[in-house]
Write a structure and sequence with these properties.
Layout (H helix, E strand, L loop, with lengths): L15 H28 L10 H11 L4 H26 L18 H30 L3 E5 L2 E9 L4 H8 L2 E3 L1 H8 L7 H11 L7 E6 L2 H12 L3 H28 L6 H33 L3
Antiparallel strand pairs: 1-2, 2-4, 3-4
Helix pairs in contact: 1-3, 1-9, 1-10, 2-8, 4-9, 9-10
Bound molecules: protoporphyrin IX containing FE.
The site of protoporphyrin IX containing FE has 26 residues, from helix 1, helix 3, helix 4 and helix 9.
Amino acid sequence: MTAPHPTSSSGRALPVAFIWRRVHSLMGLWLVIFLCEHLFVNAQAALWLGDDGKGFVNLVNLLQAIPALQVVEIVLIGTPILVHTIWGIQRVYEAKTNTWRSDGSKPSLPGYAHNQAFTWQRITSWILILGIFVHVLQMRFIDYPKKAFLNNQELAMVRISSDEGLHSLAARLNVSLFSAVQIADLQKETALFSDEKSAWFRQLTSFSLKHDQLVAVAPDRGTAMLLTVRDTFKSPVMEIFYSLFLLAALFHAFNGFWTFLLTWGLILSIASQKAFQKLGLFGMVVLSILGLSAIWITFWINLRH
Ligand code: HEM
């Protein structure tokens, strides 16, 4: 027996495409909330100059303490992104954009802001797919801190590149730095290591290091992630890549928030549509400032030394 279709108030079955459209929309709203939280946390690495990113470290440690974090990440972040993306790709292919030049065989109305927004919602979808893939691969897998225990304390290890200001910052953050040469020197003493220190050392040697790279052993994941963020934004290529990704995400999120309100019939009058357009623009500007601060200020201004 097949499950009955959900029904509308008129008693007729709701089309599957309608339900998907609503799920896509709700997931979009959820992702906007998540994006705001994410950018607020990241901005703490850069703002409050001179506090060595304490706000970022504390907030990341708070999030890392969530029980069954991996399940929470899959349910609350991974699944909504996946569902929104799968249905979104279908919508992108179905879309008939009308802001391109035309030989007359198709409508071309580039002068209308809403037509442009419709097209850009789709262009930014592709940027987001690429950006989210690279970002998750880097931050959640390649550069994710490795756990290790020493003297009954949990530590977090990450690979970063060396620079002039790193050593003084590491001393303030209570972080130990190990070069390939220092690790090779420690190798000679392994016979004297306790079981716990041997496990810690195995973790230390699991990183493959280039000549300018170090392993940072931090007292907690928040500090380790702060060093990863600082390391990432040392590179102008990464700064430009993340800036474009950020601006695309914010346009998509805030234009999307406005279309979400339309989709659910929450802004029916012209006055309310205009008011929420202004609010969306304001949100976009505020979050751009937060996001661009994390990208451009973390290394170059706040944590250089
Ligand atoms: C940071 C991640 C993302 C956020 C915050 C986000 C947010 C949103 C929001 C709020 C909407 C409006 C929903 C509505 O009109 O009811 C939307 C629409 C849309 N999203 Fe996303 N989205 C994200 C990622 C993606 C990705 C990766 C794709 C890939 C295909 C995508 C494709 C779309 C499409 C095509 C629409 C337009 C749907 C329509 O107008 O019918 N989104 N998004």
